[in-house]
Amino acid sequence: MALPFPESLTAEAAHFFAAAAQGRLELQRCADCGKIWFYPRPACVACGSTDYAWIRASGRGTVHSFSVVRRAPTPEFRDRVPYVVALVDLAEGPRMMTNVVGEGALEVSIGDALELTFEDRGAGRTLPQFRRIAG
Amino acid sequence: MLRNRAIIAGVGESRIGKVPGVSALELCAEAARRAMADAGLGLRDIDGLLTAYSMTTPYPVFYGALAEFMGLELRYGAEITAGGGSSGVMIRDAALAVVSGRAEAVLVVSGDNRATGMGRDNAVAALAAWGHPYYEYPYGGFIPAYYALVARRYMHEFGAAAEDLARVAVTQRASACRHPNAQMRTPLTIEAVLASKPIAEPLRLYDCCLISDAAGALVVTRAERAADLAHKPVYLLGAGEAFTHEHILAAPSLLDSGARRAAEAAYAMAGLGPRDIDVAMLYDCFTITPMLLAEDCGFAARGEAAALWQDGRASIEGRFPINTHGGMLSHAHAGATGGLFESVEAVRQLRGGEGARQVKRHETALVHVEGGILSNHATLIYGTQPV
Ligand SMILES: [Zn+2]
Any idea what the CATH number is for the domain that residue B372 is in? Predict the structure, then answer.
């Protein structure tokens, strides 16, 4: 069963996932107060300004917390279990949800350094993901 | 000011567990009739109705459907949706309604038939719908995983062990065994919790709340009406609320939620502090939740809640009983209803006369409910006397 991908995207989400399809993780930075936020929204969550620019994130982050999921929430994830759901604190400040994928994913710990990767869910539909940095 | 001016006049529970052939509406009506009978009030004495929501019977206007079903004539009614925290908002709003003259007696009702009306797989899938559709759900997130993130961080920072979480479930099961209407009434051991199926580590099956058919109801009226009622009144002494986020990825902190602010506001209204509280009902969708909330409500220092269950304080015979009905882990859980049962149990404990389940000191009780992933919070403080 195919894994889910966001549908009916808003303008900001469409930008975010289009950037992901081209290998970039992009965040919004407020032109008025400098706040960088995730997830994509049309106005700054610190000051309300709608004047912002997209910036390219470094793709580096650390594990704030994680869970190894053993019971699939829906049939789509039955072939995926066990998998890691994590909150990653990006070097730029915001926190996002991710899977930890790749080698040693199930041995992940809080504080582990992560780097950006991408998962193709078919037809160019690309989800940002993170993996542990070796060593 | 709200303090001392509204009372809980009656409480009721529907049948609980698997109740086939009964709609969410019928469960709600059953609980409501029992709460009215408990208060000594009839259908024409009720002129206000607040309900939460139903996932199995999603009427566009649920309170209207219930009022019509029961034959209620209302001056005031609404459906209030704040997830598991709904009952806290409903009870406070009901109290404000009767104090301000908007209604004379308000029924507060929540119920759903999630066990037979949805089935376990659909109910679990519904828990995935709480995640953000773009930035959480595609990663296979669902509510147990989100609370697992909180539990893992808590264990990392404070050294709590899986046994500490398990002890919450075991203690509450022991309480549920003394509750005639609890869904789970066979004793549980720490070993059994640790051997139960992992769901989202570190949470296992018995760290997770039940999926039930259940409804609960309360009648709220003015304190001046106390003499007309079938039971001694239970006064609403304090109430407080707070909101910080909807999705766990946007939470300002996994451990410092809005719960502390809600509790502080409730204490301030009541003019009381944690040491003045005799018994507490703390939201328990997962075993980690009442541990965090016990700290937020001032019953333990941050990181030290496990001791409340380790030394037996949180049990019915203990010095500070918590979730004496068994909570959502062992009594019942159906949407906003699990949180509402906390207030039902607080009222019963404060009245006294619960037999084997009765706590020794029962003049004040604190209830804390939350919705989402520690997203919205409501604290209620009740007492047998005005303060
Ligand atoms: Zn700004």
Answer: 3.40.47.10
Match 């926190």 to its residue by tokens: A95
Which of B197, B130, B190 has its CA nearest to residue B164?
Answer: B190
Question: ipTM more than 0.90?
Answer: yes
Q: How many domains does chain B have?
A: 1
Question: Which segments in chain B show pLDDT lower than 50?
Answer: none
Round to whole Å and give the CA distance between B208 and B56: 21
**What tokens were used for B341?**
């049962």
Judged on CB neighbours under 10 Å (0-12, 13-18, 19+), B222 is middle
pTM: 0.97
Is B29's Cβ below 8 Å from some Cβ in A?
no
Interface test with B, best of A69, A83, A96 (most B CBs within 10 A): A69
Host domain of residue B308? 6-117+211-383
pLDDT at B56: 87
> Can you give the three-state secondary structure of B35-69, one letter per residue?
HHHHHCCCHHHCCEEEECCCCCCCCCCHHHHHHHH
Q: Testing the interface with B: which of A65, A70, A100 to mutate, by most B Cβ within 10 A? A: A65
Rounded distance, CA B282 to CA B270, Å? 18
Measured between alpha carbons, how far is A123 from B135 in angstroms, rounded to an integer? 19
What pLDDT does residue B332 have?
98
Give the three-class secondary structure for B198.
strand
Q: Is B67 exposed, middle or buried (0-12, 13-18, 19+ CB in 10 A)?
A: buried
Q: How many Å lie between the alpha carbon of B199 and the closest alpha carbon of chain A? A: 5
- Cβ distance of A97 and B134 shorter than 8 Å: no
- Would you state the pLDDT for residue A135? 60
The answer to whether the Cα torsion of B239, B243, B244, B249 is positive or negative is positive
